[in-house]
Predict the 3D structure of the following.
Amino acid sequence: MNPESVLEVTERTKLQRRPNRGHYDRDTLYSILDEGMVCHLGFAAHGQTFVVPTAYGRSGDRLFVHGSAASRMMKTLAQGVDVCLTVTLLDGLVLARSAFHHSVNYRSAMVFGRATVVDENEKYEALRLFMEQVTPGRWDVTRPPTSQELKGTTVLALPIEEASAKIRTGPPIDDPDDMGLSVWAGVIPVAVRAGAPIEDGSSGLVAPVYKRYAT
């Protein structure tokens, strides 16, 4: 593996619990970030901790988030406060023979850092990334943002420099004394699936097929 593709382990990113499940290479991190659609942003403001769910996009070694220029989150993060961004993908429910050993299979990414406001030249491209993250190909068929809409939107960039991934896979891990119990154990797979498109009642058009949601 190219040493440049592995992030330095810091006090904030070092896994204390189950360190064998930790990953610090960019390929693993980016695969999780690119599959996700919603992140959670944690930050402190006015003596209160907030965790806000929001859409995001990635370009190279940076993550982009956006929101109203008047929002508390955008105003706070634009000041350069510390932020923690997380993305979690749930892959399965892990059912053990004992209540204690029940768990979930998951892939998660956690990014620490400070965000900066992108300039007007980059804002348009960042907004395209948000839409492409959720629905690839949608940007090309929709009306682009107006100058007024761009003015009312703040876009922040968070560098992916201090980050880690944590992954759990496989069956339950039962205690040897519990293996003989007459209790079903195993994994129930979980996945995000899109349903059939529901037309808004006014377009009168056939819904397009997007690769991300094709069944």
